[in-house]
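FW: tagging you since you asked about this chain on Friday. Here's the raw sequence from the shared folder, copied in full. Didn't touch anything.
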Amino acid sequence: MTELTHVNDRGEAHMVNVGAKDDTVRIAVASGGVRMQPATLEKIKSNQVKKGDVLAAARLAGIMAAKKTPDLIPLCHTIMLNAVSVDFEFVSDDFIKITASAESTGKTGVEMEALVAVSVSALTIYDMCKAVDRGMTIQDVRLEKKSGGKSGIYERGEPMTKIVGVCISDKKGEKKHDIGTGILRDDFGLEGDAHSCAGGHRQLSMLGTSSIDKMVKLGADVGSGSFAENLTVQDDEFKLYNLAIGTRMRIGKDILVEVTQVGKECHDRCAIFKQVGTCVMPVEGIFVRILKGGAVKTGDTVTLIS
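HL: got it, structure written out here
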């Protein structure tokens, strides 16, 4: 187990002596975000917040805070920063993602500088907008990656997998067939699928390959689309059905979905049930709402983002 470096032999907090360390280029990237009402985010995007340009203020606040890190965190060293950057991304209609990077050439890392930049940027967004939305929440402030120094490279390992089937059916109740590529629309669903409907905010169904494998082992003749799922996902590393309600995933570069339901009531004994006496979809299939649509295809990555 790695020992705590900021605690001495007597159990007292102390500042680590880094004098003997080599000077190396140290880089750290941190992220976080602010969740808010969609109307609040729209005010930020259109620069209608009375206090002024929210993101410009938040960016400057984050950069200034990074330079003040040793004044805020008691045992941090004073270091010379080569660069600090703060960037924002509107990942949905109610969430602004903040990414900060810090770089220094010296004897100790800049993880805290990056984390402080994200935190103070988020607090500044809250301060600028609290008059219209006191329910905003600051979420998921964390180190994404760092490099330099004796400990080498660290990069957060998010569970990542891929789409192995994009499936539609011409009629409700029919087995779906894999079309390889499709379009997801947040007000419609998967284009071409009988279950999609304009203006209906149709949920998208997903099923993991581990669930299909269970049925194959029982003797069922099934594959991608057999369970009427829209997207079949390779889930060897993590199981789709273990995801919590509210979990968000990015598909490819642009698509954003959120888990709304795990499992569903099975009203009829489907053909699969009649084959082997059970079916995984009512328990292990998941449903998501499309927060941001786009083109989806077999091979696209699926990344957990919150």
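FW: The two ends are 28 Å apart (CA to CA).
HL: agreed, and The CA atoms of residues 172 and 195 lie 6 Å apart.
FW: great, closing this out.
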